[in-house]
Design a protein that fits this description.
Aspartate Aminotransferase, domain 2; binds pyridoxal-5'-phosphate; 15% strand; 385 residues; alpha/beta; 2 domains; 4-stranded antiparallel beta sheet
């Protein structure tokens, strides 16, 4: 079965043969057991709301199959997926390696929570590849990748990192939020665990928060138990929305890519722009790695202007008609924010004397977006003293 077909049809084998296309929503905390004997059984699929509902089981199954894993857990946010995945594999006294380009709250989780639990984190340059082995210690337990990186968009050599890690019995966890499982499958490139913020491209409509973690069979029990112990669960309405988002993931991702490429190429030729950080552009330093390991690019990229941060840049953003100012990405609507990666880097440097921006290119007509950006550059010029 081709992937686009899988996306619309997997996870439809709902119990009771109800013949409903979408797994229905059950609002349930209490599940009534068939008899007192069942209290001693741990095999009931549904025994309490936190365990899941027909919709969450259907959705998990679709995700796991799309990512090439055995099964998946759902978490109340992408950040909860990150913390749950890491906590599954570490204990006091362990050391972990985390990409310097990680989502900033991932860094905070390591620097605050893991430190408190006696787990040490070293941040590494995301372009390190196989040379990551120079950071391995006897107590290194896992490598946490995010490719491309948040805000700076470096693509990592996942197969090389995984090979080096596995040679020492070290696990690899990948945050796959940017590409979504439609364009990138870390488990097929050597990663042991793939997680994502469902909030972004799978949800796709800016109306829910959720995360997922997919594991192969050999790591499933560990992940399932940690997830249960932490008490993570997701509401049935959000699962329904996420499942609905997944059904159109393929067409949305292709359109995000087409629109983003057109806008990114236009931006690259503007005098106000120093660099566009988009792996799909041949000018991106790891474009070849992206071509080798990804089936496509999402609609999110970075831009560095030739000018420093200023009120004029803010007026450029404030006047956009189609680009909202908002922290997320992955929805059908375009977004823009200013960024300063230097505030969340320790192993690499970032020159913040020039304005950093992150754009999410939505499903609007790219010509309208380009006109909006062009008017923004006119405002930038007008308001620059
Ligand atoms: C790469 C990446 N991972 C994880 C997250 C966290 O997702 P959530 O907002 O669903 O907690 C984000 C959010 O922006 C992200 O960009």
């Amino acid at each position: 079965m081709k992937e686009d077909t899988e996306i619309v049809s997997k996870g439809r084998d709902i119990e009771d043969d109800m013949r409903i296309v979408n797994a229905p929503v059950f609002h349930a905390s209490t599940v009534l057991l068939p008899n007192a004997k069942a209290l001693k059984s741990h095999d009931l699929k549904y025994n309490y709301g936190r365990r899941g509902s027909p919709a969450s089981f259907a959705f998990k199954k679709s995700l796991a199959e799309l990512e090439g894993g055995y099964d998946a857990v759902l978490t109340p946010s992408g950040l909860a997926a990150i913390s749950t995945a890491i906590l599954t594999f570490v204990k006091a006294g362990d050391h972990i390696l985390v990409t310097d380009s990680c989502y900033a709250p991932t860094r905070r989780f390591c620097e605050v929570m893991l430190k408190r639990l006696g787990i040490e984190t070293t941040f590494y340059d995301p372009t390190i590849g196989a040379a990551i082995d120079r950071f391995f210690r006897d107590n290194t337990r896992l490598v946490f990748c995010e490719s491309p990186g948040s805000q700076t968009f470096e693509v990592q050599d996942m197969p090389a990192i995984s090979k080096a890690a596995h040679a020492k019995g070290i696990l690899v966890i990948a945050d796959n939020t940017w590409a979504s499982p439609y364009f990138h499958k870390p488990l097929t490139l050597g990663a042991d665990i793939s997680l994502q913020s469902i909030t972004k491209y799978v949800g796709g409509h800016s109306d829910l928060l959720m995360g997922s973690i997919t594991a192969p069979k050999k790591h499933w029990d560990a992940l399932f138990h940690t997830h249960s112990i932490l008490g993570s669960s997701v509401g049935p309405d959000d699962v329904y929305l996420a499942q609905r988002g997944l059904r159109t993931l393929a067409v949305r991702m292709r359109q995000h890519q087409e629109n983003a490429l057109k806008v990114a190429q236009w931006l690259e030729n503007r005098p106000e722009v120093k660099r566009v950080l988009y792996p799909a552009l041949p000018s991106h330093p790891q474009h070849d790695l992206w071509k080798r390991d990804f089936a496509g690019a999402s609609g999110t990229f970075g831009v560095v202007l030739t000018t420093p941060p200023s009120d004029a840049v803010e007026s450029m953003l404030d006047g956009y008609i189609h680009f909202g100012i908002g922290y997320s990405f992955g929805g059908y609507e375009s977004l823009a924010i200013t960024v300063d990666p230097s505030t969340s880097r320790s192993a690499t440097s970032w020159d913040s004397s020039k304005t950093g921006l992150r754009y999410h290119i939505g499903l609007e007509d790219p010509d309208d977006l380009i006109a909006d950006l062009e008017a923004g550059f006119a405002r930038l010029k007008e308001n620059t003293p």
